[in-house]
Structure formats: C-alpha cells, structure tokens
C-alpha cells in the first residue's frame, strides 16, 4: 500500500512529490515516457543548448525560483541578456513593443506616443480607454472582447491576438481574460480604467528583467528534481490505463502489476485524466474532458553569425494573423540567454500551429523546418543552410482556458470534495506557466499530506 501515487512526471507531478517528501511522506511517481519533465525538454546539440518547450521562469511568480534554491541550483539562475526588446511583425517590418509597457500596454506616455506599432487613430482609441465607463457585472469575457471594448480593434490585432493569446497558442476571442489575465480585469473593476491603474501602480523594474533560466536550459529543473527524489520515487515507462476504487485506489498499468494507494494525485493533461478517471467518477471525467487543448510545434536551428544580417538585438517577435504567415512567433535564443550557442554562432526558434492553425502539424518535420527557415530567412536576411535543425512536436499539450474556464474548475473542485483523497493538478486547471504549475502542485500535495494524517 503506497501512501500517495502521483500519475504524471511532468513539472507538476515532480513538484508534488518534492512537497510530499518535505512533509515526510514517500510518494510514487508514475510517468509513461522514458523521461520526466513533460513539455520541459532540453537537448544539447554540438554546443547549442536547445529548449524544445518553455525556456524561462517568470520572476513575478516566485515558485520556480524558490524551488531552484531549495534544490541547490538557485545560484545557477541567469537573467535575460540586454536589450530585452520584443518585437511585433507589422507590414513585414519588425517593430519593437513600446518601452515601459505591461503586456504591450503603455505605462508611460512618451514611448507610447513615439511607437510605430500603432497608427495615430489606433493610439487615440487606446488612449481613450481612460474615459470609458467600467463594465458592470462580473461575467467571464474573452481576451478579444475585453481588449476590443477597452482599447479598440487595432490593439486586438497587434497586441491581444499575437501576444496575449499567442502566449497560450489560443484564439483571442475564446480565451478567458478572467482566467489568464485577471490583473487587467481587476484594474478595470477597481480603478475604472486599465491605463489609470497601470500609471498609478508603477513599481521599479527589476534590473534582472521579468524572466530567468538556467545555463543548461530549463530542463535542469526537472532533472534536479528527479535526481533528488531518486529511483525509488520516480518510475518511468509506467503507463497508467485506469484508476479505480474510492480510497484506497487501484492504479492499473499497461505492462506492470497494479499499484494500490491511499491517495492519488493526477497531474497529467486534463484529457488524459478524463480517460483514467472514468471508473472513479464519470461526472469528474466529463468535466476534465471539456477542457480543450491546442497542438503546436517548435523548430530550432543553428547558424554561423555571419549568415544572419539582422542585428538580433532583443529576444524575438510575435506574428499577428493579419501578416498571413505560418509562424506564430520566433525567439532569438542566443540573444536572449547567455551561452546557448558556441561563439560566433546563433540559435533561433520558430513556433507554429496553435488553435489558429491546427492543421499545420499534419505536415512532415521537413516541411515544418522548410517553412520556419524560409520565413525567418526573409525577415532576418539569412543566407545559406542551417548547421542543424530540430523539430519538437507538442500534440494536445497547451490547455485552452476558454471563457467559462473558471467555473469549470470550480465544478471540478466541488466534485473532488466528494471523493476521498483524490486530487488534480497541472497546467489544465489553475495556471499554465511553470511557476503556476509548481505552486498549485505543492499546494495540492500539502492537502494530500494533511488528509493522510
């Protein structure tokens, strides 16, 4: 009889196991892949450090940074390189986001007035946000609806769609602003205006910027967690096919003998959890199955520096749909983080697919590579062929917090309260970023530990 079995060895499952160990409980993590980390994956190719999925920890949410320090790798954290400029593609030109902005929204007048990202009519419409009445009621609303109502169509086209929705590879008119950007909603509610709130609540910017990473890529974090937990805690190549019972639970595996546990934490994607939990509670499984997911791909490639004429001074750029490109975004990895490419070389990453173009992932790796290299070559004046290319496919990996997501999660939590020592965590429910997943997983593990005692 195991105290706690954790289904899924992504960052959430590993963080939950770490928290249980800190509380004196020995968990067992079952991961179907032959590696841990989930969408966090780092490869080392001929001196290049290539993150296949996320590549940073948000400093504003400290859970990932704190965990790095607890694991003894906090001293290895590095900030993004200067300059930290991000760009938006408009009319075939890469235009920098205004300085001193929050999610592209101005916090100072000067940089906003001088930017070429918006037309004068667009700037006037965005500035008029300060005199618009606040919205009555607290019904959920899409990011597109919120931004269009407060800032106008141009702000939706060149900020909300490529940047706010693009972060989540989703549809700007379906993603929930309440679930993904609650601060914007709160500023309208409390200040009557998002811009007035941003101008009034300015805090000194950290000299380290907004993000941190690790020299060997973010894959260092799950690797350190896995090593700290040990082989007796983490079992890879263990595919869970069914969870049954009502506490204790029986966890059926595809190729090994079943496992029994007093408590179960499921940290897999919601669609996978739905399949595993059908024997436990059909209503809970149906609620999990209602959470949609998007698929995407990352294409990374290395070049000699002289092959690229663009100065690459910044972190990368996002691509609005209006530009009619296959790319959603691109990162100049070797300009964003130190030591990601050998001296005299550059590392680039392109992002494709998402909710706006799901059929793109039907293409072969060669086609995805050719598309990415061709589009970046035209924008960055690249000559010659890459030294290497690598395609990372992420099918059904990005949860889509559509309008109503908050209520669905509340319904899931209500259903879980009627079940004995069964818990759900991971990116599908209460936050999609690495820090969100870690914080939620550790809080979930704390609940499980308290229930066991």
The DSSP helix count reads: 16
Any idea how many domains?
3
Give the proportion of residues in helices: 25-40%
Mean pLDDT: 96
User: Quick one: how many beta strands?
Assistant: 21
Main beta-sheet annotation: 7 strands, mixed
Top-tier CATH class of the largest domain: Alpha Beta
CATH architecture of the largest domain: Alpha-Beta Complex
The whole-angstrom Rg is: 22 Å
CATH topology of the largest domain: Polyamine Oxidase, Chain A, domain 2
Shape: globular
* Percentage beta strand: 15-25%
Span between termini: 15 Å
Give me the secondary-structure category. Answer: alpha+beta
Relevant CATH superfamily of the largest domain: Protoporphyrinogen oxidase, mitochondrial, domain 2
Describe the protein in words:
The two termini are 15 Å apart. This protein is of the alpha+beta class and 453 residues long. A hairpin with a 2-residue loop joins strand 3 (42-45) and strand 4. Helices cover 34% and strands 23% of the residues. The strands form 5 sheets. Strands 1, 2, 12, 13, 14, 15 and 21 form a 7-stranded mixed beta sheet that branches.
Which helices and strands appear, and what pairs or packs with what?
Elements: E1 2-7, H1 11-22, E2 27-31, E3 42-45, E4 48-51, E5 57-58, H2 63-70, E6 78-79, E7 86-90, E8 93-96, E9 101-102, E10 105-106, H3 109-114, H4 120-127, H5 143-151, H6 153-165, H7 177-180, H8 182-191, H9 194-200, E11 211-213, H10 220-229, E12 234-236, E13 240-245, E14 249-253, E15 259-266, H11 270-276, H12 282-289, E16 293-304, E17 316-318, E18 327-332, H13 333-336, E19 345-353, H14 365-380, E20 388-399, H15 405-417, E21 422-424, H16 434-452
Parallel strand pairs: 1-2, 1-15, 2-12, 7-17, 15-21
Antiparallel strand pairs: 3-4, 5-11, 6-11, 7-8, 9-10, 13-14, 14-15, 16-19, 16-20, 17-18, 18-19
């Amino acid at each position: 009889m195991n105290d706690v079995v954790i289904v899924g060895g992504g960052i959430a499952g590993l963080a939950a196991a770490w928290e249980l160990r800190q509380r004196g409980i020995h968990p067992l993590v079952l991961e179907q892949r032959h590696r841990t980390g989930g969408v966090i994956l780092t490869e080392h190719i001929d001196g290049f450090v290539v993150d296949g999925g996320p590549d940073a920890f948000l400093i504003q949410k400290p859970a990932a940074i704190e965990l790095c320090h607890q694991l003894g790798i906090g001293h290895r954290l590095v900030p993004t390189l200067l300059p930290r400029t991000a760009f938006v593609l408009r009319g075939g030109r890469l235009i920098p986001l205004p300085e001193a902005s929050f999610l592209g929204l101005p916090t100072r007048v000067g940089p906003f007035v001088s930017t070429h990202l918006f037309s004068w009519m667009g700037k006037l419409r965005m500035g008029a946000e300060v005199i618009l009445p606040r919205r009555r009621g607290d019904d959920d609303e899409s990011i597109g609806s919120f931004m269009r109502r407060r800032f106008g169509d141009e702000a939706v086209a060149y900020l909300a769609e490529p940047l706010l929705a693009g972060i989540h590879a989703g549809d700007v008119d379906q993603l929930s602003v309440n679930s993904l950007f609650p601060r914007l909603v709160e500023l309208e509610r409390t200040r009557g205006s998002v811009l007035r709130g941003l101008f009034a609540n300015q805090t000194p910017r950290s000299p380290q910027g907004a993000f941190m990473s690790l020299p060997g890529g973010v894959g260092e974090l799950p690797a350190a967690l896995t090593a700290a937990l040990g082989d007796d805690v983490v079992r890879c190549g263990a595919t869970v096919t069914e969870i049954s019972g009502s506490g204790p639970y029986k966890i059926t595996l595809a190729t090994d003998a079943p496992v029994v546990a007093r408590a179960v934490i499921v940290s897999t994607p919601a669609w996978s959890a739905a399949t595993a939990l059908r024997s436990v509670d059909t209503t809970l499984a149906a609620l999990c199955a209602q959470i949609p997911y998007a698929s995407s791909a990352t294409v990374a490639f290395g070049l000699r520096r002289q092959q690229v004429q663009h100065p690459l001074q910044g972190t990368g750029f996002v691509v609005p749909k209006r530009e009619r490109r296959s790319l959603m975004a691109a990162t100049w990895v070797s300009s964003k983080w130190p030591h990601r490419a050998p001296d005299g070389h550059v590392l680039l990453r392109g992002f494709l697919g998402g909710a706006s173009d799901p059929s793109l992932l039907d293409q072969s790796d060669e086609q995805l590579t050719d598309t990415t290299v061709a589009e970046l070559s035209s924008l960055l004046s690249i000559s010659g062929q890459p030294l290497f290319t690598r395609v990372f496919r992420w099918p059904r990996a990005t949860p889509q917090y559509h309008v109503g997501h908050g209520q669905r999660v509340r319904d899931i939590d209500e259903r879980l309260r009627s079940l004995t020592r069964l818990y759900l965590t991971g990116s599908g429910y209460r936050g999609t970023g690495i820090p969100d997943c870690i914080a939620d997983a550790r809080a979930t593990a704390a609940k499980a530990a308290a229930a066991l005692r």
